[in-house]
Amino acid sequence: MTDTIRTKTELSELGEFGLIRRLTENIVLKNDSSLKGVGDDCAVLDFKNKKILVTTDLLTEGVHFNLMYVPLRHLGYKAVTVNLSDVYAMNATPRQITVSIAVSAKMSVEALDELYSGIYMACERYGVDLIGGDTTSSLTGLTISVTAIGEADECDIVYRNGAKNTDLLCVTGDLGGAFMGLQLLERENEVFKVNPKMIPQFTGYDYILERQLKPEARKDIPPLFKELGIKPTSMIDISDGLSSEILHLCTQSNVGCRLYEERLHYDNQTKKMAAELNINPLVAALNGGEDYELLFTIPVSDNDKILNHPDITIIGYITDESEGVNLMTAGAGQLIPLQAQGWNPLKKNI
Amino acid sequence: MTDTIRTKTELSELGEFGLIRRLTENIVLKNDSSLKGVGDDCAVLDFKNKKILVTTDLLTEGVHFNLMYVPLRHLGYKAVTVNLSDVYAMNATPRQITVSIAVSAKMSVEALDELYSGIYMACERYGVDLIGGDTTSSLTGLTISVTAIGEADECDIVYRNGAKNTDLLCVTGDLGGAFMGLQLLERENEVFKVNPKMIPQFTGYDYILERQLKPEARKDIPPLFKELGIKPTSMIDISDGLSSEILHLCTQSNVGCRLYEERLHYDNQTKKMAAELNINPLVAALNGGEDYELLFTIPVSDNDKILNHPDITIIGYITDESEGVNLMTAGAGQLIPLQAQGWNPLKKNI
Hints:
The structure is a homodimer. Chain A is α+β, with helices and mostly antiparallel strands. The first copy, chain A, folds into two domains: about 15-155, CATH 3.30.1330.10; about 170-340, Alpha-Beta Complex (Phosphoribosyl-aminoimidazole Synthetase, Chain A, domain 2), CATH 3.90.650. Helix content of chain A is about 35%, strand content about 25%. The first copy, chain A, is built from eleven helices and 13 strands. In chain A, strands 8-10-7-11-9-12-13 form a seven-stranded mixed beta sheet, with helices on both faces. Chain A has a four-stranded mixed beta sheet with strand order 3-6-4-5. A two-stranded antiparallel sheet of chain A has the order 1-2. The radius of gyration of chain A is 21 Å and the shape is globular. At the A-B interface, helix 1, strand 2, strand 3, strand 4 and strand 5 of A face helix 1, strand 2, strand 3, strand 4 and strand 5 of B.
């Protein structure tokens, strides 16, 4: 039995400063641009002649994550990668993050260690420095706020507003997996709530679970663009769902778009889970969100550079604004206007 | 009666993107360093040859503020100024902020307009640009996360760790006011809970109420240092209370300190409220916090430069580390070791 006993230290034993020290004492700054990290009123950075990219996300318990089935280590990892994804979506390199948390005093120090082990794992994998944050309490659940800071040469930065008529619409990786992973987790959680002795059935679904619980940001794509000699005309990461992101690109670029259902690529596990739950994987791709793949447009003249690249799929093309934003369905080949039915956090808790 | 009817729009009517548009549509970027603000995956900044300062704070309902008596407009204002205070505490100039909020769906759009009117008021007064953020929901109360970004020439930046033996310990403004303002608000709130028909008694206490509800950051101090030809050897802003901040400076600088009770300056309203509530104003100054004044050290040779300056008081001096950090009391003149009894958010909600 002894090996299963886990220490549980109350946060009040450490106090705010003790906790901050514990959570940050092993930080070693990796980037030249990180002059001064945790420990003063501000962090100090130096990007020389580079431009600076800033993005931020706020995650709240019960809305963005459910601690019933999200391990804290994965949550920490994901809180970082979803922010880094926004930096890669500008064709830039993330360098620093700040992490602020508000925790219930009921949470143990060891639980926070778990959360931070995931945060540091992401810092390690993506080469970013944790340079600051705030540690405080909440009357209720856990809240995590992450700000990511990156750098890029001005000429490399890709915005959302540069898509042009006839450009190819491309996406990295496969879609819908994170959403199907979430459906699986929620199903097993419901089963568990009815009968806590039931063992969750996750076999064969490791990929979609990881897509949901521990998503990676497409760190490999900006250097791949360099290698291929491509600069996208517009780019965005897929956090809310393909529909919503395509509409963002089109609205900001004043263009229309035609998306082809038959070009969308799903992992086998996504398809299998979708069949099991009687969900059309198209719905998962369009409206599910959290895939953290990159959606971008390139001039049609760059077609050959990406053709047959295993990580990139051409899923449609940009049209004149007057043609609207439409999905060409597989099979019957109907043209259906795309709607942003992406995740609306403000509707979730009514 | 008609003029008292207030519109109440549900957040779900606008949705996330509609709400973001409403809250950000009037932004005009003021700083040359703000190349791109709200509306893409990241904001884009350019600080040329300046160093970049980053600081962040997370405020949660019930811990940092009580919406029973804190007007939303003031809360928005304060959420910004407390962050800017950290930038001034590095002797730097804030240029941008990001603001993320998690709100209960019960909150109305008009209430958020109020919150943002305070945020924009602070942006206006301090010349900073709102360049990004995240808008989401929480299952319970309101959470606000603000990150401030500033700039400075490397040679101007003041850290916490440069205080030297014999340096003068100085503070701007007066102390303890914010804490006494909070005591007053809490007292009147208790009275109100017992009898909602009672009219709160705030007459004659406008200054300490404003210190608590709508604190200002010491924007004037970095340029004053330039004007006086001073560069502090160390500096910190007073958010947790004078004791805690002095201990930060001394610990990080490896020095001791002697603080003189009789040198501490209180506003008349602070003294009057303290007398009424039978609280020693010294306790408010040492442990109350939220004064957002600047605490700094200067070489004794700079004494003449600040002597008799109405905004700066010399409250003690730096000693060798071996002498410890002590308060010399007024009257009897006892030497008492200072302890950090500042605000501990992690103990508050046990």
